[in-house]
From TrEMBL:
HAMAP family assigned: G6P_isomerase
InterPro entries according to UniProt: G6P_Isomerase, G6P_Isomerase_C, Phosphoglucose_isomerase_CS, SIS_dom_sf, SIS_PGI_1, SIS_PGI_2
Reaction catalysed by this enzyme: alpha-D-glucose 6-phosphate = beta-D-fructose 6-phosphate
Pathway: Carbohydrate biosynthesis; gluconeogenesis; Carbohydrate degradation; glycolysis; D-glyceraldehyde 3-phosphate and glycerone phosphate from D-glucose: step 2/4
Organism of this sequence: Sphingobium indicum BiD32
Protein name from the UniProt record: Glucose-6-phosphate isomerase
GO cellular component: cytosol
A Pfam short name: PGI
Amino acid sequence: MQLVETLAKEAKNRQVQRRFRLHRRGYSMPSPALAAIAALPQADLKSIFNTDPDRLSKLVLTQGPIRFDWSKTHLTDNLMAGFLALAEEQGFAARRDALFAGEAVNNTEGRAAEHPAERGEGHPDSVAHAKMLHARMRGLIDAIEAGALGEIRHILHIGIGGSALGPDLIVDALDGDGVRYDVAIVSNVDGTALERAIEGFDPHATLIAIASKTFTTSETMLNAASAINWMVEGGVDDPYGRVIALTAAPDRAMEWGVDETRILPFAESVGGRYSLWSSIGFPAALALGWDAFESLLEGAAEMDRHFRLTDPAQNIPLIAAFADQYYARVLGCQTRAVFAYDERLALLPSYLQQLEMESNGKAVKLDGSPVDGPTAPITWGGVGTDAQHAVFQLLHQGTIITPVEFIAAIEPGHTLDPAHHRALLVNCFAQGAALMRGKANVDDPARAYPGNRPSTTILMDDVTPHALGALIAFYEHRTFANAVLMGINPFDQFGVELGKEIAKSIETDGPTGFDPSTMALIEIALGDG
């Protein structure tokens, strides 16, 4: 702690203040621990390896079927000490305990965030309630498989945000394990998305799952109404009899026309982007089988236990947050790139965009005061070697420094020539090495690589339900740990509301009172004057 105290004093100078970009309007002064971290010198990655022979043992950790490697980041012993002090300063242990105890960690909305309870880790009453609702879901799945709703060959899942991204990721990642139905997941209110989804579907053999926490989400309900019309036009006698409602508002689902026996509730304390473990995961559980869904839950539960019980110095989601905080808040990196070197994880970057940016894209702390620096960076990414030929030019030689995360699996997801998977992994590992190493070229600067660019590698044994559950839970807890270190609430999302409110006002009250640009757009495109 003496080192931290000494560095905190040094951090008062103007250079450190500039480093934090405190001139930006609305930022408050950084905490002592964060200021101390900012005062530490940044070493070159190659020199860090040369001076620390134990680096791999410190920064490569394994949890279950996943290996996490932060050795190619700028984390050092001194930075780790600084961030551990920051975690203590921000009350990390207490906020983590509050999360698992089912306390109202979502302070702006006055409720808990109980997605871990869906995996069996949380307040005993909440865990018991989640198990009861899971049993209800399994019972309905058993009935569907037994033919209670007639022949089912297709599943049309309608939702948006977390109600669609989670199930879409799970089904897409694990469909090689024997998907038993055709699954289409629709989120966009653009009718083209729905038309394409149902193309080739037989309405008489289709089950519709409507996922909406409130059962009032405008985009979801419009798509649901159009899906019902499609069934009616296809000659289905009782289209509502083919609907399963996934919601925290069962009364509204019944008012809409869904029979109580086909409503799968989930707890109000489970947020949308954390909800795939609840009945929102119904299409994955039906398509992949209950055993796969249970394995997904257990993989997540193992990561829950690691996060809840492991000392901060060895806590995998927390260490990941340390690296995130260093690059975003100290070095001012405004983006973070995620590249899945496995086609099965192609949807992971999109999933993480919502999880991370909707959770931590905030401007105020828990007490409503301004944040003391940047919060969530922009999460973006792509798939393996495709991305190499699209965006890696900027990552290697551009002027914008972007922390990169590589995700790969040792076992392939196909039965083709092993040369495919070997080439995939070789490219993955080579990119991380190249970002760090760089290559000088005095004679031709256009062919020079600066190097010293950070990356993390997450290596899974295989993309199984268990491993995928652990991976997603890791990202959830990493997001929460980042929020704790910044002193913000990751469980509300008021930023998505204003635009939707304005859209609704245009529909109900007409286009009045807007700026000239918006008025002109409405008149030209919609004919409303």
